[in-house]
Design goal:
With 273 residues, the protein is an alpha+beta fold. The chain has helices at 46-61, 66-80, 107-110, 113-124, 135-143, 155-165, 185-196, 216-232, 234-237, and strands at residues 32-37, 40-44, 173-176, 202-204, 207-211, 241-244, 247-250, 259-260, 267-271. The chain has two domains: 46-165; 173-271, no CATH class.
Length: 273
């Protein structure tokens, strides 16, 4: 699907220049992930990929629009560079630098990304017309930052990440990785269900297989959201390959990104061996 809501502008995330070439097959090549949507390239490290993909999955689970994901990513980038840090201004901690003294929860709660992301979305949906507000206004209404205009600089890259991780830009999110450890299909399924809510996936040997039904366009969007999530989390979950919609990504061939395959158009296959 064409990303109608992408705006041009300077990227806020680390982008454009990569020391390792995409055809580099050396075992110690640089590890990173990239969302590339309509000329906007957002490059993130593996921790940033993990948390941005969780923001996308949780927004989908809550039925929130892609705009909510864009706002969340841009806010977290400004507050913590999308790293789950245990320090900050005064008593601020976590992805969004939420403060226990301001009612966001305990330090232990805020340091759990699913909790902190959920709290951010709980605040965002209370903001009237947040989907049409400028990102600075929407983020500021939740965060009450001393520097609200700073959120805007991260909007273009955050849109690219949100569009790909929500499934609106097929095969647009990829990671270059070295070898991953041996994963567990049951652990992958549990992680996916915790992030998205149950998508109906099942464990088949070393694979997690999720078949989507319904309108073709909706099936493709939901399938790519899951496929991109699996790639974003491949390193820590021990995922070796992901197949969907005539494309395949694998750790071994990760510098090549998504390559043509015979993968089904309605079924995501996540392999852990």
């Amino acid at each position: 699907m064409k990303l109608r809501w992408l705006l041009a502008g300077a990227l806020g995330l680390a982008t454009i220049t990569v020391a390792a070439t995409l055809n580099d097959r050396e075992p110690n090549r640089a590890e990173y992930c990239v969302a590339d949507v309509e000329g906007t390239r957002a490059q993130v490290d593996l921790e940033q990929a993990r948390w941005t993909s969780l923001m996308a999955a949780m927004a989908q689970n809550r039925g929130l629009p892609p705009r909510a994901t864009t706002i969340a990513i841009a806010t977290a980038y400004q507050e913590s560079r999308i790293h789950n840090i245990d320090y900050g201004d005064r008593d601020s901690v976590g992805l969004f630098q939420q403060r226990p003294s301001q009612g966001w929860g305990t330090v232990e709660q805020i340091m759990q990304p699913p909790y902190s992301i959920g709290e951010f979305y709980d605040g965002l949906v209370k903001v009237a017309d947040y989907t049409t507000l400028e990102i600075t206004a929407a983020a500021q209404a939740v965060q009450r930052s001393a520097f609200p205009q700073a959120y805007a600089q991260h909007e273009p890259a955050s849109r690219s990440l949100a569009s790909s991780l929500r499934g609106y830009s097929p095969a647009a999110f990829t990671c270059q990785l070295n070898e991953t450890g041996r994963g567990s299909a049951s652990a992958v399924l549990a992680d996916v269900d915790a992030a998205f809510g149950s998508l109906g996936g099942v464990v088949q040997g070393d694979d997690v297989v999720t078949r989507f039904t319904g309108a073709a366009e909706d099936t493709r969007i939901r399938g790519w959201a899951l496929a991109h999530y699996a790639v974003a989390n491949a390193s820590h979950l021990g995922i070796t390959s992901v197949s969907f919609d005539g494309r395949r990504w694998s750790v071994m061939d990760s510098p090549d990104g998504w390559v043509a395959s015979e993968a089904a158009i309605d079924t995501v296959v996540i392999r852990t061996r």
